[in-house]
Design goal:
The chain is built from 15 helices and 4 strands. The chain is mostly helical. It has a domain at about 1-240. The strands form 2 sheets. A two-stranded antiparallel sheet has the order 1-2. The chain has a two-stranded antiparallel sheet with strand order 3-4. Helix 3 (about 75-100) runs antiparallel to helix 8 and helix 6 packs parallel to helix 8 (about 220-240).
């Protein structure tokens, strides 16, 4: 019991140290961002701010995290590989925040950073079988362990980056996800994972006063990709290994919001004939803003959704699949009822707009057939007919 008390004290100190360092480093990083030109200038309708804001805040998050980790975490070989990969991600993010880099180059470096822990034992060896009627409860990844792990790490790294569209959104969702992993790690006595997650929670909370609406500083790609990378790696090191019987569900619940938003964005863009990497203004946070919510309301709504998913993951870990499913469904029903009570007009208008958009899309899909019916040829495609955003394609 004494040992557990000491370990809990270490987890608490890791959180406090990361919080203090991150908070104190933020104004210094802000000054540095102005000096090196890492400033986000509003230039399109996807951005919610109207004045230039420094965007290197992720460096303060990283400093708080790394100082706490060096003081309190046990340096095993797998964890050293995670730290090395995170340093690569942070350096890539700093350079990209100062001078935007090509998407393909960033993707390549992210794969390299993901390979480092994957080649040092941080691997998804086994997944629980989502098919409840199968005789085999597990999937043994075998030779697919490395590519599956790399895919997971790179996907989550970019998923967190994609939801970084409103003041305080990505940092808050990451803090909620890290807190969920922290609680589960304590429940299953994975104290090394708990220390790392406590440091990540503290670093996020320390930066929050500068990032909440109205934001004084953005964390930029430096912070968003770093948070995604650490969450992805530690979910592999902690959740996939410790709880193989539910490993298919728990990490997906904890990181459900960024995963859903990224998957929905890719499906939407492909369905509209666009590149899946093309930035647009149809992420879930943009849709909430278009419904009439302000930034604080939209962020609070997504915090609640992320918390519901996190609580469901904790219940799943401690009480089993049936209770977790009942709990999750109950919370979703409560959230839907609350949304209709608090925002009845906004919900109705958004549903109407979605139906109109589907009708228009079906109408446009039938239009090309009409020229062939009267024997006339289709007009040549002019420059003005290129898809919207063709000249401004960028990685968000």
């Amino acid at each position: 019991m004494l040992l557990n008390t000491q370990l809990l004290a270490g987890v608490f100190l890791a959180l406090i140290v990361a919080l203090v360092v991150s908070f104190l480093a933020s104004p210094i990083v802000k000054t540095f961002a102005y000096k090196v030109g890492a400033v986000d200038v509003p230039k399109d309708n996807r951005r919610m701010h109207h004045i230039p804001i420094p965007r290197l805040g992720g460096l303060a998050i990283f400093l708080g995290f790394i100082v706490s980790i060096l003081l309190f975490a046990e340096m095993t070989n797998p964890f050293r590989s995670i730290l090395l990969g995170s340093v690569i991600i942070v350096v890539l993010g700093v350079v990209d925040d100062i001078t935007p880099l090509p998407a393909k180059l960033k993707f390549f470096v992210q794969i390299v950073a993901a390979l480092i822990p994957a080649l040092n034992g941080v691997l998804i060896h086994v997944l629980s079988n989502p098919n409840l009627f199968s005789e085999n409860p597990y999937w043994d990844m075998g030779v697919l362990s490395i590519p599956v792990t790399v895919l997971w790490i790179v996907a989550i790294t970019n998923a967190v980056n994609l939801i970084d569209g409103l003041d305080g959104l990505a940092i808050g969702v990451s803090a909620i996800s890290a807190t969920t992993v922290l609680v589960i790690s304590l429940l299953v006595s994975e104290f090394q994972v708990a220390v790392v997650m406590a440091a990540l929670v503290g670093a996020c909370v320390g930066f929050m006063p500068y990032n909440l609406n109205p934001a004084k500083m953005f964390m930029g790609d430096t912070g968003a990709t770093f948070l995604g990378y650490i969450l992805a790696c530690m979910s592999v090191e902690g959740l996939f290994k410790s709880w193989a019987i539910i490993s298919f569900a728990v990490p997906f619940l904890i990181l459900g919001l960024p995963i859903f938003d990224t998957a929905f964005a890719f499906i939407r863009r492909i369905a509209h004939g666009q590149s899946p990497m093309q930035a647009d203004r149809s992420h879930i946070h943009h849709r909430l803003i278009d419904m009439g919510l302000n930034q604080k309301q939209a962020v609070a709504t997504l915090y609640v959704i992320s918390a519901i998913l996190g609580l469901s993951a904790v219940v799943l870990t401690t009480s089993g699949e049936l209770r977790a499913m009942i709990f999750f469904v109950s919370l979703c029903v409560v959230a839907m009822v609350a949304a209709r009570v608090v925002f009845p007009k906004e919900v109705r208008d958004e549903l109407h707009e979605e139906m109109e958009e589907l009708k228009d899309h079906g109408h446009h899909a039938e239009e090309p057939e009409s020229p062939a019916q009267d024997g006339s040829s289709a007009p040549e495609k002019t420059e003005e007919q290129e898809p919207e955003g063709w000249e401004t394609e960028e990685d968000q």
